[in-house]
Amino acid sequence: MSKKIAEIRELLMEHHDWFKKSIPLIASENITSPAVDEACASDFSHRYAEGWSGERVYAGCSFIDQIEDICMDLTKEYYKCSHADVRPISGVVANLVMYNAFTSDNNGKMCCMSIVRGGHISHGPRFAKSGREIFGTAGTTRGLDIEYLAFDNDEMNLDIDASAKIIREFEPELVLFGGSVFLFPHPVKELGDVAKEVGAYVGYDAAHVSGLIGSGYFQDPLREGADAMTMSTHKTLPGPQHGALVSNREDLIDTLRSCAFPALLSNHHLHNVAGLAIAVAEMLEFGKEYHKNVIENAKGLGQALYERGFKVLMEHKGFTESHQIVVDITEFEKTIGLGGDIEKLLEKANIILNRNLLPYDIAEGRHYQNPGGLRIGHLKSPDLAWVKVK
Ligand code: DSN
């Protein structure tokens, strides 16, 4: 074996050994079951399909089609919807499908959460309003003009009245809810009605909370007014690293389908579709209990840290309704350091979490590389050891 291959394998083994001894608390990571792993390592990873099941561009797809059909059916059952596209290869790609479908080719306009208050980089403009360059997917790839919704720092949520005013004045084509720092359900119903008033579509990025939503917690965007909900499939939904888009808008299905393929995808990752099918089947059976525990654990962690004197945000609302909590560590600035410093120190102690901007960090002069907060997620995988693999 070449020296390089041996080196790579050694590093992988070291990573595995190290992670076994660590406490992983990154809110966007989970662990897949042995059955999901088996599917992801199957021959599907070598194959091409392209297109919709039954209408493929390649031969040899009969088993691939059957599994993708099952994956779509299970996803529709989990999210109680009539359309599920399980081809997007990530949450970002699923968002791009939504942007393609709901915004104009030129001069499209979107309202969403700002990145510094918890929005995702894929929602971001080409240039932030402050003049600092930020190359977010929506601005860079789709050329969208972005206006941020108003945020209430004290409630860690969108400010309904101020956001309604912004939507009415800006008249976007798409109002997008959801984000990466996501403690409480967004006011989809209230602001969705305002979006409809100005003729905008309503989107919801459920990347972080897709498992919670499927299992009946957090909120139910498709029934609160969302025209489409996108997600990654590996955070609260313990599937492979992949994406999906679901909708109940039967009149938009053709558009949504073609905005994925051929507009954005060539081949999609067939092994991950198989893994996702298994993960969703697992969640249909065990998700209710698993996700109840996830939310209770996150609240419990918030309470335990709070009782030990840490400034966990949102004590007055039970810290969180999701899998994440946010801690303000600015009091340690002069002694230990800020988020970036503390993240590194914790990593040395095998505790892996990530630094995070607090909504008031930029105003107080702190930067994303060393912000005033930590985001902590608790996503211990469900015990699915019962799933027998060969
Ligand atoms: N930025 C990732 C996170 O929330 O950790 C998601 O893509």
Number of continuous helical runs? 12
Through-space gap between termini: 27 Å
Instruction: Give the oligomer, counting copies of the same chain as homo and different chains as hetero.
Output: single chain
Q: What is the CA-atom radius of gyration, in angstroms?
A: 21 Å
- Average pLDDT metric: 94
Question: Helix share of residues?
Answer: 25-40%
Integer count of domains = 2
- Give helix and strand order, one letter per element, not per position: HEHHEHEHEEEHEHEHHEEHHEEHEEE
Summarize the structure.
This protein is an alpha/beta fold.
Could you characterize the architecture of this molecule?
The protein is an alpha/beta fold and 390 residues long. The protein has two domains: 38-283, Aspartate Aminotransferase, domain 2, CATH 3.40.640; 287-377, Aspartate Aminotransferase, domain 1. The protein has twelve helices and 15 strands. Strands 2-10-9-8-7-3-4 form a seven-stranded mixed sheet, with helices on both faces. Strands 11-12-15-14 form a four-stranded antiparallel sheet. Strands 1-13 form a two-stranded parallel sheet. Helix 4 (91-102) crosses helix 10 (253-260) and helix 6 runs parallel beside helix 7. Residues 385-390 have low confidence and may be disordered. The structure holds D-serine (DSN). D-serine (DSN) binds at residues 28, 120, 180, 207.
